[in-house]
């Protein structure tokens, strides 16, 4: 996952945050006080619905059967986090727990301005 420069605007900032959180989950660091395995991620090295090695080389195709327990997977396919992973990313973007979570402010603070 490559860092997106912050000079590209709000979308780039959110993508950069998303990539940072996903990297931390993969490294088993605590995210918002919860370890990935306790959060329910049992599969972090394969996609739930994809094609190729570890279901991670091509995106999920039409009529392809996804995994049964989607919340156990960190990635949906080669490019997208699962809903469970996006929930963690969204919580962190909305209510930052550290200065590096959102720049210059989190969404909660932005809504108050």
From TrEMBL:
GO terms under cellular component: extracellular region
GO terms classed as biological process: lipid catabolic process
UniProt cross-references to Pfam families, sorted A to Z: Lipase_GDSL
Keyword hit for Lipid metabolism: yes
Entry's Gene Ontology molecular function annotations: hydrolase activity, acting on ester bonds
Location(s), subcellular: Secreted
Family: Belongs to the 'GDSL' lipolytic enzyme family.
Name listed for the protein in its UniProt record: GDSL esterase/lipase
Provenance organism: Glycine soja (Wild soybean)
